Amino acid sequence: MITKMNHVSIFVLDQDSAYEFYVNKLGFKVHTDASMGPGMRWLTVCPPEQPDLEISLMAIAEGMMFKKEAAAQMRSMVSQGTFGFGVFECNDLMATYEELKAKGVEFKKEPTKEFYGYEALFKDDSGNWFSLGEKER
């Protein structure tokens, strides 16, 4: 029986830029940053309060996972914001929104009350978009 998920991938256009975004803007912690041979890097980060979930910042590059044409298509889809989505939680949406906005995070939707709580939408530096929510108390 499956008991939990411990790794998930977010496809990024550039791992160095993604490192800067996820660590220095979102405040995630680096779990693993290791070379995996020429031009390959295993880079995982995790939310500070969820260290058992590693988010792999996976570079979109020709090689083991993608053939040349597929890599180009994937890079296009990610950069246009048509691929990649996730949901993050926080305890105080307005404070987190203001903090991230001050750090240069681009929001697609300001915090609003929804039937399930409060939500804002933002993009990472590659074009992936995310919901940032606070559950209604």
Automatic annotation (TrEMBL):
For the VOC domain, which residue ranges apply? 4-135
- Which superkingdom does the taxonomy of this entry point to? Bacteria
Which Pfam families does the UniProt record give?
Answer: Glyoxalase
Which InterPro entries is this protein grouped with? Glyas_Bleomycin-R_OHBP_Dase, Glyas_Fos-R_dOase_dom, Glyoxalase_1_CS, VOC_core
Transit peptide as UniProt keyword: no
> Which terms are listed as keywords in the entry?
Metal-binding
Name of protein: VOC family protein
